[in-house]
Every structure is written in structure tokens, then in C-alpha cells.
Write a structure and sequence with these properties.
Layout: H1 11-15, E1 22-27, E2 32-34, E3 42-48, E4 50-56, E5 62-69, E6 73-74, E7 88-91, E8 95-101, H2 102-111, H3 113-139, H4 142-153, E9 165-166, H5 171-178, H6 182-194, E10 198-201, E11 203-206, H7 211-215, H8 219-222
Antiparallel strand pairs: 1-8, 2-7, 3-6, 3-8, 4-5, 4-7, 9-11, 10-11
Helix pairs in contact: 2-3, 4-5, 5-6
Length: 226
Amino acid sequence: MARTKKRPFNVNVFLNTVDGGRTVATYRKSETVYAQGDPADSVFYIQKGKVKVCIVSEQGKEAIVALHQSGDFFGEGCLSGQPLRLATVSAMMDSVIMRLDKASITRVLREEPKFSEMFMSYLLARNARVEEDLVDQLFNSSEKRLARLLLLMANFGREGSPQPVIPKISQETLAEMVGTTRSRVSTFMNKFRKLGFIHYDGDLEVHNSLLNVVLHDNPHLRGRDR
């Protein structure tokens, strides 16, 4: 007997059928989704577009700590008892974002095992990414951190096919995420371009050969061989 092919779980279709507690809104470029200090009362899902997550210190210093794109969730801190938003999230381009209030997504997680499994896998993958980011900051040069960031933005290493073309992003934003200066980012980008690792003319095209920068003489990986 031929086996019936299992249909993959489509989170976008599923969320559009959730009964109550959800709204969908379009955010223009640079528009704020929520601000640092706002009540943490909902989870968001990006149907289309890209957002950045920024934190401002008490001294007024701002840092970009994450980028999220289509298919990503954010704001899930409310599910662990976080009373206020720890960061500001704003759109990097015109974006369509679904908001699910805390009560609604809590109910869905309890009643829908397929969604709960998918959401848990997503959070575990994000936690692993945060750990990798910490290792990256501790052990790697700013050049390697930039190379890794570009590869991640192009989806290299994620499920599905990579999308090597990244919509226009400023070097100031890249510098904030890497933790270096704009001038150094400019130097590295020019170097990557001359070596054929990237190409940019408006949009940024990332080639898989950029992996060589990340994999070559990686201190934390080398330590495992000792």
C-alpha cells in the first residue's frame, strides 16, 4: 500500500484561522511595532517584511541586537512573565505583521500540538542562535562577525534554499550589529567584493564562498580538536 504523504504544517495558513485575539497590520519603513518599556502583552509573527530589534541603555547608547524576517516570531517574552518590552522593534521595510494577544496564543499552544511543536522548535533554534552569537562576539574578529551576519541574513545554514540577495541595508546598521565602526565595515565589504564573496549594486548578493571567511581558523572550533 502506498503511504499517504504527510503534508507539512503551514504556520501562516494556521495563524490566519485562529479564532479571535489576532490582528494584522501593515507597517511602513521605520515605523515602530512596539517600544522599549511598552507592556508585553502579545506575540508577533512576520507575514512579510523585515524588522530590527534595538535596545537603548540608561546612558542613551543604542544597539541593534537582532533582525527578524518573514516567517519569524518576536515578542514571545510575554509568555515567560516579562511585564514590559525590553527592546524597541521597528520595520526595516514595508512589512505585514500579525499580532496575537497573550491569552490567544497561550490557548493555541495548549490546544494545538502541531503549532506547539513548531513554536517550541523555533524558540530552541533561536536560543541556539543566541549562544552562537555570544561565541561569535567573544572569539571572532569583526571581519568574521560581519561575514557570519551576512550569511545568516541570506539564510545560509537555515532550512530551505538560501536567498543570497539581501534587500538594501545600511553599513551603519551592519556596524551596530557587528559591534564595530562603519569605516571598518566599509573596508571589509570592499575586501569581500574584490574577492568575489559578495556583489552589491543597490541590493546585496552573498555568495556561499563567503563561508571561507567564517570557517578559516575559527578559534572556538579549533579548541575542540585539542
